[in-house]
Amino acid sequence: MNILALDLGTHCGFALQVNGDVTSGTFHFEKSSHPGERFAYFNVWLRNMALGQRPIQGRKVDLIVYEKPLGRMAKSQAQVDLSIGFKTRLEEFAYKYPTRLEAVPISTLKKATTGNGRAEKIDMVNAVNALFGRGLTEKEHDEADALALLHYARQWEAQGGSSVFIVKQPKPPKGVKFLLPKKKEAA
Length: 187
Prior knowledge:
Shape: globular
Distance between the termini: 55 Å
Strand content: 15-25%
Number of helices: 5
Number of domains: 1
CATH class: Alpha Beta
CATH topology: Nucleotidyltransferase, domain 5
Helix content: 25-40%
Radius of gyration: 18 Å
């Protein structure tokens, strides 16, 4: 199974497993002059990561797993807006290119990785280093979280997990036409 695991945020940690090979890292979606710019970049980046240059049967990734957004635990409203923005783009992608999509609560991921649902960042990094034989530092916690998500998804699949959220493209009802707004003619 090909899996893309994401720790969403300005510094987006990712772990991509394709045909058993794992690639991981962090991609930065920095603040810019327009609030929608980082989301536009995220859409392009996600499409390239999940579909690749030469998709296998039209899709490279079978499952996208991500850390569930913070909600009321966020440090600021801007952090909430950013998390929801990235989550919305994931849902849109999963709809457009029918892909399984799973959200994992942060405490669930921490407990599965370290045995403690309130583990610190360094505990997660150390656990991931032990699992994957990496040498990540605390500054690379976004990548470590993505690798922990990948490990969680592998374990979950091995135990026969079924998707809670499978996105399929619906067919429009018979007789319904989707109309685009008319272009304004130049005056």
